[in-house]
Design a protein that fits this description.
The complex is a heterodimer of chains A (118) and B (108). Chain A has strands spanning 4-7, 10-13, 19-25, 31-38, 42-51, 54-57, 64-67, 73-78, 87-94, 108-109, 113-117. Chain A has 118 residues and is mainly β. In chain B, the strands form 2 sheets. In chain B, strands 2, 4, 5, 9, 10 and 11 form a 6-stranded mixed β-sheet that branches. A 5-stranded antiparallel β-sheet of chain B has the order 1-3-8-7-6, with no helix packed on it. The chains are: A mainly beta (118), B mainly beta (108).
Chain lengths: 118, 108
């Protein structure tokens, strides 16, 4: 049981290049999330998905696109990378809330991808 | 103003000390609350959820004050292994908002 995995672990891009980050989970979770973490800022939600084929914008979606074609995978795309997108990217997943749980479903995080845009 | 504010620290304490972290949040509609722990260059992991009545898990006690929009975490009898960054997390539906974290170093 690998939990949440992310590919790649590290990447250096030049401004204007594109890339896709892959997140995979084997816990059969409905919900998946992409965050970025910058010094002094905490984690910020980029996009999330509540099920296969559905995605929604988070707090900082600009410059990113996502797709959830399979339940276990959540892809984050950067079409034209900018230095401001240098960050550590974390993927997370959680199970679907049941009635009465009041939002208390734990998020499980992947190990992160360190991206530098030159 | 950040939606979730924490004292960044660092807190440097000796083993065995009691240490308290505070967190305030601005969205009064927030529904659920958590403390996550993040070790250096690692992913965040859930430490404990924070319930309205307050809750305890071994040496860790969490409190929530909805009226003041304030969350706290108390660590008793600190261990070297408690050294980490502690993240306050506030959730409304699927929108999780993280504080920037409070760094704790426990020294021998």
């Amino acid at each position: 049981n690998a939990g949440v995995t992310q590919t790649p672990k590290f990447r250096v891009l030049k401004t204007g290049q594109s890339m896709t980050l892959l997140c995979a989970q084997d816990m059969n979770h409905e919900y998946m999330y992409w965050y970025r973490q910058d010094p002094g800022m905490g984690l910020r939600l980029i996009h999330y998905s509540v099920g296969e084929g559905t995605t929604a914008k988070g707090e900082v979606p600009d410059g990113y696109n996502v797709s959830r074609l399979k339940k276990q995978n959540f892809l984050l795309g950067l079409e034209s990378a900018a230095p401001s997108q240098t960050s550590v990217y974390f993927c997370a997943s959680s199970y679907r809330l049941l009635a009465g749980e009041w939002g208390y479903n734990e998020q499980f995080f992947g190990p992160g991808t360190r991206l530098t845009v030159l | 103003r950040k939606e979730v504010e924490q004292d960044p620290g660092p807190f440097n304490v000796p083993e065995g000390a009691t240490v308290a972290f505070n967190c305030t949040y601005s969205n009064s509609a927030s529904q659920s609350f958590f403390w996550y722990r993040q070790d250096c260059r690692k992913e965040p992991k859930l430490l404990m959820s924070v319930y309205s009545s307050g809750n305890e898990d071994g040496r860790f006690t969490a409190q929530l004050n909805r009226a003041s929009q304030y969350i706290s975490l108390l660590i008793r009898d600190s261990k070297l292994s408690d050294s980490a960054t502690y993240l306050c997390v506030v959730k409304n539906n699927n929108d999780m908002r993280f504080g920037a974290g409070t760094r704790l170093t426990v020294k021998p």
